[in-house]
From TrEMBL:
Family matches, as InterPro entries: AB_hydrolase_fold (IPR029058), Plant_Biomass_Hydrol_Est (IPR050955)
Keywords noted in UniProt: Hydrolase, Signal
Alphabetical list of SUPFAM superfamilies matching this protein: alpha/beta-Hydrolases
Keyword Lyase: no
Protein name, entry field: Phospholipase/carboxylesterase
PANTHER family: FERULOYL ESTERASE (PTHR43037:SF5), UNNAMED PRODUCT-RELATED (PTHR43037)
Coiled coil, from the record: none
Molecular function in Gene Ontology: hydrolase activity
């Protein structure tokens, strides 16, 4: 148990919009925070417009928190802690709610983006869409991608933490080889290591669009 007055335990949080109708399949977006952050920070990256858009489409939001200060593969080079935790939380949601698996998305910013792309490509193949905002890199899948998701990749051209030439420009090229025939939406914006509100909105509209990614 946490010490009295100490920080709450790190957990996963599910947000069910008032527009959700039981029995009617809804989109589900899993949202991953950056290093040293938590669920509230991840939600803040969506912005008021993004939250309103998701609410209008009855989108469920699952926001897990890493077991440590950031996602396990970044500090331990393994997926032994956070991936099972995310998978368990996700399976619980899938058992309890009606989810449109054609709109099962995974989004992350910074370290969360690195993790999202790594498990989105190398995981069990559940995700239909992966939104990758300012990643530091990713762990390529060990074999063939089981079920290639659509990928939306965005990065600021003035990012000094994860310079774009060393990260997303290379990643975009690698994804072209990993996902042949699967278009990757790649957006560069004039900004630093941040979530650009207009790019975030564009990414969410891409995820929620009725056509295939």
């Amino acid at each position: 148990m946490p010490a009295p007055g100490g920080p709450p335990p790190r957990d996963a949080y599910l947000f069910v919009p008032p527009t959700y109708a039981p029995g009617k399949p809804s989109p589900l977006l899993v949202l991953l925070h950056g290093a040293g952050k938590g669920a509230a920070d991840a939600l803040a990256t969506l912005g008021p417009q993004g939250l309103e858009l998701l609410k209008s489409r009855a989108c469920l939001l699952l926001v897990p928190e890493s077991r440590g200060a950031t996602w396990d593969v970044i500090t331990t080079s393994s997926f032994k802690q956070d991936l099972p935790f995310i998978a368990s939380a996700l399976q619980q949601v899938l058992r309890s709610y009606s989810v449109d698996t054609r709109r099962l998305g995974l989004e992350g910013f910074s370290d969360g983006a690195t993790y999202a792309l790594s498990i989105g490509l190398g995981g069990p193949g559940l995700f239909s869409h992966v939104i990758v905002l300012s990643p530091g890199g990713f762990v390529p899948p060990a074999g063939r991608v089981k079920s290639a998701p659509g990928v939306f990749l965005a990065h600021g051209t003035r990012d000094t933490l994860f310079p774009i030439d060393q990260t997303s420009r290379r990643i975009a090229s690698e994804l072209g080889q990993l996902l042949p025939g699967r278009p990757v939406k790649y957006v560069q914006f004039s900004g630093g290591h941040e979530v650009d509100p207009s790019v975030q909105q564009q990414a969410l509209e891409w995820f929620l669009a009725p056509s295939a990614p």
